[in-house]
Structures are given as C-alpha cells and as structure tokens.
Write a structure and sequence with these properties.
By secondary structure, the chain is of the alpha+beta class. 34% of the residues lie in helices and 28% in strands.
Length: 71
C-alpha cells in the first residue's frame, strides 16, 4: 500500500485519468472528490464487498440447478 500525505485542495492522479482531491478535513473525517471516466466503476469498499458476495451466491451450484429446472 502506498501512503501519501495530502492537504485540503491537494490532489493525486492515478493512471493519467483518475484524480482524487481532498475537499475537506474535519476531525477524523476526510471528504474526497473523485474525477474519473464514466466507465470506471467507483464503490465504497463495504458496497464492493457486498456486490462480490452476491455475485458468488449467484454462481452457486444450487442456483445453477434451479436455472436448469426452468428450462
């Protein structure tokens, strides 16, 4: 993991087309802004993990058997 220090209104660039800017810092909260192409999905980590779990469940053999029974 790369750890960087940034101050309010400073930014960093990832892969030439994603920019992350520090918008505000209050206590232990940091507000960030992300500029990225529309085709780049951006999720909070907890939401991303939920999506991954749902995708795993959808691929389970029980669900595949249920789909086979439909056809």
């Amino acid at each position: 993991m790369l750890a960087l220090s940034r101050k309010k209104n400073e930014a960093l660039v990832i892969n030439n087309d994603i920019e992350i800017t520090i918008l505000d810092i209050r206590g232990d909260q940091v507000k960030i802004g992300i500029s990225a192409p529309k085709e780049v999905p951006i999720y909070r980590k907890e939401i991303y993990l939920q999506i991954q779990e749902v995708n795993k469940e959808a691929l389970s053999t029980e669900n595949l058997e249920a789909l086979k029974d439909l056809f």
